[in-house]
Amino acid sequence: MNKQSDGVGWSARAALMAAALVLAGCAVGPDRRDPFENFNRKVSDFNESVDAVVLKPAATVYREALPPLVRTGVSNFFGNLSDAWSFVNSALQLKGQNAAENWMRLNVNTIFGLGGILDVASELGIERHREDFGQTLGSWGVPTGPYLVLPLLGPSTVRDTFALPVDNLGDPVAAVDPAGWRNSLYGLRVVNVRSNLLRASSVLEEAALDRYSFTRDAYLQRRRAEVQEGEPRSENDGSDAEGTEMARTPVNRPWLRLMGR
User: Fold this and answer.
1) pLDDT given at position 208
2) pLDDT < 50: residue spans in the chain
3) FRET partner for 31 with CA separation of 20 to 30 A, picked from 63, 74, 81, 141?
4) 42-60 residue pLDDT tens
5) Do 108 and 162 fall within a single domain?
6) Looking only at Cα atoms, what is the longest distance across the chain?
């Protein structure tokens, strides 16, 4: 009986060891979407350190100091500014309804919402469609390219990285003069958005075994869905090999969202 038990125990241990080796092999295997993973992980660690030391504490103080009504007004104001660039990109992608609704949102909230502080358009049922130049390039057939993590900006791809300068040109805050006002608006937007993500980031820290992989996979999946307008795509159609559309993270692309994208 003891010999049989020992045999069963040894077999179980052997199976567990084999499974562990297989899982370890899968964990370290290269991801064709992320050929620069070693570099990206280092940048991701740097970004998380900056967030922990600077952004998260500032966002926590901001959230505790200002009442929800004021923070909502700040979010609405910057959201209204982003609708202008979303309108342009919707038009460039020939999304007529999205462009019309973004245009209506911009005008309704600017005129009747005290410059966008009040989100009157949402109360009227006018939907917001977030669009950026990376999505526009994707709709034009530009391949996604490898996954990248940018210093201080976070998850991206080669295509989205090349789109960033154009997105910056389309950002109304970038046109504010003098520079002191412009930088103050940038700072306010960063802290406000980070404060809105405090709860989500805490959940991510507690739930994800490998935050880097979770963020990457979620980002690429959602980014693909945004470019494709949510249409399902076969996993065997060669799209990854060709570097075509991959998507965006459900935690709202923490760093790029901080920059207003």
Assistant:
1) 64
2) 2-28, 230-261
3) 141
4) 999 999 999 999 999 999 9
5) yes
6) 85
Judgement on whether residues 139 and 22 belong to the same structural domain of the protein: no
Burial 117-149 (b: 16+ CB within 10 A, else e): bbbbbbeeebebbbbbbbbbbbbeebbbbbbbb
Q: Are residues 224 and 235 in the same domain?
A: yes
Q: Tens of pLDDT along 111-146?
A: 999 999 999 999 999 999 999 999 999 999 999 999
Same domain, 10 and 51: no
Distance CA 192, CA 214 (A): 24
Q: What is the pTM of this model?
A: 0.76
State the first-to-last Cα distance of the chain, in angstroms, to the nearest integer. 67
The 10 Å Cβ neighbour count of residue 51 is 20
Indicate the number of domains in the chain.
Answer: 2
Same domain, 2 and 110: no
Using CA atoms, how far residue 73 sits from 85, 127, 196, 255, in Å, is: 20, 18, 13, 21
Close Cβ partners of 7 (under 8 Å, ≥ 6 residues apart)? none
The backbone torsions φ and ψ at residue 30, rounded to the nearest 5 degrees and listed phi first, read -70, 145
Determine the pLDDT at residue 247: 32
Phi, psi values for residue 74, rounded to 5°: -65, -45
Residue 126: give the domain boundaries: 31-258
